[in-house]
Design goal:
Two copies of one chain form a homodimer.
Chain A lengths: L12 E3 L3 E9 L3 H13 L5 E7 L11 H5 L14 H8 L1 E5 L1 E7 L4 E6 L4 E6 L2 E4 L3 E3 L12 E3 L3 H14 L3 E5 L3 H12 L3 E5 L11 H13 L3 E3 L4 E6 L5 E6 L2 E4 L2 E4 L3 E3 L2 H6 L22 E3 L6 E3 L4 E3 L4 H14 L14 E5 L2 E7 L2 H6 L4 E9 L10 E9 L5 E8 L7 H9 L4 H5 L15 H12 L4 H6 L4
Parallel strand pairs in A: 2-3, 2-8, 3-4, 8-19, 10-17, 11-12, 11-17, 12-13
Antiparallel strand pairs in A: 1-2, 5-6, 6-7, 9-18, 14-15, 15-16, 20-21, 22-23, 23-26, 24-25, 25-26
Helix pairs in contact in A: 1-8
Chain lengths: ~475, ~475
């Protein structure tokens, strides 16, 4: 269905042979913003739509998820992490990208943004018909003195990653403390350990990897300890000590003081909504920008995507704010279509995430036990051990699959997987099942790929589904009628 | 729901303290039959149900799919391929397994089978209340003279595999010809090549791996040629030449004669329905035994599962006969439940299959182009190239994904994947999508696992879905409204 793009704003200009040309302004030159810009360009020529993007940093479209591998020297050059450079957008797509330009305010009435050229230190106004707010996120920092001392790094942008690697190479720190034991914290811990630093991980929770259930997270904790990292859980950071040069020298916690000439903050990120909030755009209950399924904000012609927006969790049935490049890309793509008269929705997320810690592949989708309880589910769980390949096939290695199903109905609502090579991406089939609201019984019948190099004759995910189906029985009769595991 | 198991037959006996005990007889001791037996035992004690299984061969519950790896010496011992031995069934589950016992006829009126003890060369009758027919399949052999000459092997049972490996070790053949370039043919070709034989593959079709579309199959052909195998497609075998000892010495085709002191038949298998057919059990249009969703034949209390049955193809909406251990296990499991008063259906298949040829992982699910046409679909295709991991992450390797979608609706109806490590099992998420009748647009929004060691930010399957969604447009307007790839 086509919705004609008609005058959102007031700046539509006559261009060339008298064709009205709209102006799309994009704030933020990373995944979400540039996906929107590229998508819009694929559907509208430069004669139909002017596209201008402002990025306060030095890079466009970079892979922040790749930073731990850059710090570990697994990826050699920072350039490898840049999917597309500003010149490529300008030369190949007529997208007018301005680097080191920070949008400092949005005037929705006059359809203008105020932009500061950080190099020239000068401000100017720029008009828009449609606007994409893709301001991303900022690392969460503890509300402690000296948390921005030299040697303390948040890891969010390519610039952050480059600064950290330079610091390691030039300052040769010996003792790193990672604050926060989530994905980025553990990935950075491993990266620094591989570079020869002594690494201590401090987490306030009862376990690392708190996005998994404790029983599964414990396996990740064991792996990171096995690599030689010290792990202190249930430990709250209280202060940073610095030396006379204002360089960090220790992390003080309620459990003890840890020497540190390098600190990496792995406390997650917060949506960067200051600009949008100041302009009067609606912020949702998660603290991120609220949009509809088409990624439209409450203001006509103003869209938002990426780490700064909230999105719908299809299992929990509530808004969530999840900072992940894969969501940012999909949301940006939807804007590219919707801002140019098409119709494409971003239907939400189900909390899928994967990572690799040491040789351990770690994956989750749907809800954990804590999340299921919070979402009002009565659930059962099953955890099974199997192998990634037929047991007799070389390279078969252990895999643990935990699944959650709604009690009674047997509807699958969550899965967690830990194992070696070939384990993590098995979460995708569970994600597709949860997305489609399949029951465990239905899932156990799925026609999945079987051959000895890839799977036992019952794929581990199918075995887990069988077990949880039996567990979901609400009575002895029900249990008897259900297939036993 | 419970359906009480009430007197199917006439042989229910008083047992022990006067409890009526039923008798379940299983014909065939491999995956389907023994899954049924085990499943039934998990639900009924030996006081409630006597379970007797007859297997004409020497092994129970073996992994026929593992035979190529045994022949290649990747798997050392034949015993590694045996999931469970007869003694384990007898000692742990009170399942009375009789090896080297061939059922030679079924008398449905008198509820008896006639069994020949192949060692004692004696026949006897055995009564049943319920019967499981799991007679499996037999290798398809060309209707040519001397096709059972010494040195010509069909590969279906563990006994076949052991005989082939013994032959290779003892006779030291130099030139192997594989007739048929499907899964088993190519896997065996690779196995023999790795053992140092010269290998020639002869296939009557225009390509090897005809279960894929020609464009995808060609990539597999290139891989097997790259390993040093000769491949002759469009080549029909016309005769086998033998020496004075009746050993095979050459394969004669319409394109030439190929020296061969070893021939492996990889022409697929035929369902072994002779017993069932003779007893009057309904055979379906595929030539395999017809059952309902519960795996019940047309005769009350007589069930069938495994390579000998036909099953419902959920996309093609017609019966198919597909010999795969994973289906056999699931079907057998359903019988175990249904024959003991429970209710469990086998809801059909969608044609998923995976294999590994050389370093190439090969996968398919749903329909190929030829199959889609035969099933009455108007379809579009998209084929994309991507990488198995983020392009900057070590070990990222090429992956090709081809998808088929129904024109107009965009419903996904087929997928084929070829690539290196990490490619094949991606077919599972496409299988789950096809199973749930997702459209390409819906699929492109799926929340799949993303991290650099596992995937580019857009998983290759998502990219393929985007492309085929655009291709599915039925008009220029429709194309414009759809998200462009």
């Amino acid at each position: 269905m086509m919705t004609p793009t008609t005058g959102w704003g007031t700046t539509t200009t006559l261009y060339g042979e008298g064709v009205a040309r709209e102006r799309l302004v994009v704030i933020g030159g990373d995944a979400a913003g540039m996906s929107a810009a590229s998508g819009a360009r694929r559907r509208k020529t430069v004669d139909e739509l002017e596209i201008v993007a402002f990025e306060r940093g030095n890079y466009t479209s970079y892979a922040a998820c790749g930073l731990p591998y850059f710090v570990a020297d697994v990826v050699d050059a920072i350039d490898d992490l840049i999917a597309r450079h500003p010149d490529e957008f300008r030369d190949n797509q007529d997208i007018d990208v301005h680097m080191r330009h920070e949008v400092v305010s949005i005037d929705l009435d006059r359809r203008r943004v105020t932009v500061r050229d950080l190099e020239a230190n000068a401000e100017r106004d720029e008009p828009f018909d449609q606007l994409v707010i893709a301001t991303g996120a900022v690392p969460r920092r503890p509300a402690l003195e000296r948390s921005d001392a030299a040697g303390i790094f948040g890891i969010q942008t390519v610039t952050d990653g480059a600064a950290l690697r330079d610091y390691i190479v030039e300052q040769k720190p010996k003792n790193a403390v990672v604050v926060g034991g989530g994905y980025i914290g553990l990935e950075m811990a491993e990266a620094m350990k591989r570079r020869g630093l002594a690494v201590t991980i401090v987490d306030s929770g009862p376990q690392v990897m708190s996005t998994l259930d404790p029983d599964m997270g414990a396996m990740v904790g064991d792996a990171i300890r096995g690599l030689g990292c010290e792990v202190h859980t249930g430990t709250r950071v209280q202060a940073f000590e610095t030396d006379s040069d204002s360089h960090v020298k220790a992390v003080v916690s309620d459990q003890g003081t840890y020497a540190a000439d390098l600190v990496v903050l792995g406390l997650g990120v917060l949506p960067d909504v200051a600009l949008a909030q100041a302009a009067g755009i609606t912020i949702g209950i998660t603290g991120a920008i609220a949009t509809d399924r088409r990624m439209a904000t409450n203001v006509a012609g103003v869209w938002s995507a990426g780490d700064c927006v909230e999105t719908y969790h299809r299992v929990a049935r509530r808004p969530v704010n999840i900072a992940l490049g894969t969501h940012a890309n999909k949301q940006g793509r939807a804007i590219g279509v919707n801002a140019t008269g098409g119709h494409l929705t971003f239907p939400g997320v189900i909390g899928t995430a994967v990572t690799k810690i040491c040789e351990l592949e770690v994956a989750r989708t749907g809800l954990t036990e804590r999340e299921a309880t919070a979402a009002g589910f009565e659930y059962v769980t099953a955890t099974i051990e199997s192998t990634t390949r037929a047991s007799y096939y070389p390279g078969a290695s252990p895999i643990t699959v935990k699944v959650l199903a709604e009690r009674g109905t047997g509807r699958l609502i969550g899965a967690q997987i830990i194992g070696r090579e070939g384990a993590a991406k098995r979460v995708d089939v569970m994600a597709a099942a949860i997305w489609n609201e399949m029951t465990a019984e239905e899932f156990a019948s799925l026609d999945l790929g079987y051959a000895p190099p890839f799977s036992p004759v019952w794929d581990p995910t199918l075995i887990a589904a069988r077990r949880v189906d039996a567990a979901a029985a609400v009575s002895a009769d029900d249990a008897r009628a259900r297939s036993l595991p």
